[in-house]
Amino acid sequence: MIAEQWLLCPICGNKTRVKIRGDTILKNFPLFCPKCKQETLINVKQLNMSVIKEPDAQTQSR
């Protein structure tokens, strides 16, 4: 039997609508939380989730 678990929001810690198994691999996955209405980019490998930090947008100077 393969282990399954719900992905938790890295911001508020609540359960999202995504369920992963032990053999699931996600790269640059946009995880949306229905409670806090935030979207974060994550990577998942062997039930371990890591958050991808996006650099803030900067204005272009001429």
TrEMBL record:
Q: What is this protein called?
A: Conjugal transfer protein
Source taxonomy: Bacteria, Bacillati, Bacillota, Clostridia, Lachnospirales
**Listed InterPro entries:** Cys_rich_KTR
Which species is the source of this protein? Acetatifactor muris
Q: State the Pfam families in the record.
A: Cys_rich_KTR
